[in-house]
Amino acid sequence: MPSTVLVSTRFFDPSAEALLRENGLTVRRTGLPDDVQDDALDQAQLDRLLEGVEGWIVGTAPVRGELIRAHPQLKVIARRGVGYNNVDIEAARELGVCVAIAPGGNDASVADHALGMMLGVAKRLKESHRALEGGRWSPVVGMELFEKTVGLVGFGRIAQAVAKRLRGFDARVLAYDPFPNRAAAEGLGVELVELPALLRQSDYVSLHLPLTRETRRIIDRDALAAMKPGSILINTSRGGLVDEEALKQALMEGRLYGAGLDVFEGEGDDDSLPAIRELIGLPNVMASAHAAGSSNEGLSRTNRIAAQTVIDVLRGVEPPAQCVVVKGAR
């Protein structure tokens, strides 16, 4: 009898589903429309959907320890993305369930988005659009990215992709990373510096760090005060990296030129919506709904990575090391 794979993540394209089926797997879907995240499913619904399932390609649904324990046949949980904070990693490790991510698939999409936000905020496109909607044809004067200094906080794959794109703008690129890739920095002409120097010198600061205890609110009130006056903050990484109330004050007081935000600390929490609305309502803020990695191409690549990881585990093949968060033993 073929193994069953539950696909609960949104935007799982037909070619990725076909890859699963071509490898002899039965695919089970949730029936949710693509505009609804799988975290809309309650634990009882997930419990029913997971009956007899050996592989699970999950989106943002909470994967709790009790849910994993209730399904001893489950062998692999694959996140379509690189974050896995919604998965109880310790329970998966204890129970021998492989947890996997899909690194690299949406790097280009996120890098494009970060650069697009730099340009959109700098050229004040939101304000220009609103002015034109109101019948005002006077130009809104912005600033350039050309020959500016861009600081990348974090220097992994996505930040390196941003650095490559910035070559076309003749930008000076600085990077801070607690574990710097010196060879990559040298190859891209990037200057590795400490965070205070980066904040002090950069016209644009773009965040590319994972969210950990050490990085939570790394851009706090003091960091914002240390940033170059009139600079721009871009966050396409994790909302918890920024003290959003302090950011709002810096923007309202004119200490920063603007901000481009794809992620928010309270995203998905209804109680946080009023504060988020206040922040994104500012004229010098451009925002998107955690959509940086959501290009057709990026989603297709990450879908295939997640699907192939599930196929490998269910065949007894070792998945690529960069995809494995918990090795698993089932």
Describe this protein's structure:
InterPro entries: D-2-hydroxyacid_DH (IPR050857), D-isomer_2_OHA_DH_cat_dom (IPR006139), D-isomer_DH_CS (IPR029753), D-isomer_DH_NAD-bd (IPR006140), NAD(P)-bd_dom_sf (IPR036291). GO terms for molecular function: NAD binding; oxidoreductase activity, acting on the CH-OH group of donors, NAD or NADP as acceptor. Keywords: NAD, Oxidoreductase. This protein has 330 residues and is of the alpha/beta class. The chain has two domains: 4-105 and 295-326, 3-Layer(aba) Sandwich (Rossmann fold); 107-287, NAD(P)-binding Rossmann-like Domain (Rossmann fold). The chain is 36% helix and 16% strand. The chain is built from 13 helices and 13 strands. The strands form two sheets. A seven-stranded parallel sheet has the order 8-7-6-9-10-11-12, with helices on both faces. Helix 10 (221-226) links the parallel strand 9 and strand 10. Helix 1 runs parallel beside helix 13, helix 5 packs across helix 7 and helix 11 (244-252) packs parallel to helix 12 (273-280). It is globular and about 65 Å long.
